[in-house]
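Private note to self, pasted from the team thread so I don't lose it. Backbone tokens:
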């Protein structure tokens, strides 16, 4: 393999040297990445500053990843909201959620999965995070709305 071939990714874009300061690796990464995912030093450096699951939330999740739980939660909540629009709107007003369900959907898509699970477990510790697909969608929706209303109120303080 020539050096030119080594520095090309499968999509033909150039690879660049690892960008992690102080990294001892001489790895090349795709131009859109910041670190070499196969280098232990790079991975540890990249994970610094990332949110960590609270021990209680981690236990509540079991072997389910925060990312999978987030996908399941979004699916569960918005299948119910779409199928029961009037009831969902009444619930939104009753629980005093600012904004509409479209804004809630965007917020749920953008929030870091670890932060979401930590906050959701804090707001609704009895919600079974290990099997969200089989939870009561109304209770899951209430938990999400409660989580966001608590956050909104805390941000105003």
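Design output:
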């Amino acid at each position: 393999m020539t050096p030119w071939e080594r520095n090309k990714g499968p999509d033909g874009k150039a690879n660049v040297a690892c960008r992690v300061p102080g990294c001892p690796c001489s790895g090349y990464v795709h131009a859109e990445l910041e670190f070499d995912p196969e280098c232990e030093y790079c991975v540890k450096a990249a994970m610094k500053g990332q949110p960590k699951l609270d021990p209680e939330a981690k236990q509540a999740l079991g072997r389910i990843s925060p990312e999978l739980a987030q996908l399941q939660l979004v699916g569960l909540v918005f299948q119910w909201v779409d199928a029961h629009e009037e009831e969902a709107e009444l619930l939104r007003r009753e629980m005093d959620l600012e904004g509409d369900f479209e804004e809630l959907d965007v917020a749920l898509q953008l929030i870091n999965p670890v932060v979401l699970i930590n906050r959701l477990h804090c707001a609704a510790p009895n919600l079974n995070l290990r099997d969200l697909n089989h939870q009561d969608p109304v209770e899951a929706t209430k938990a999400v709305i409660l989580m966001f209303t608590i956050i909104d109120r805390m941000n105003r303080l």
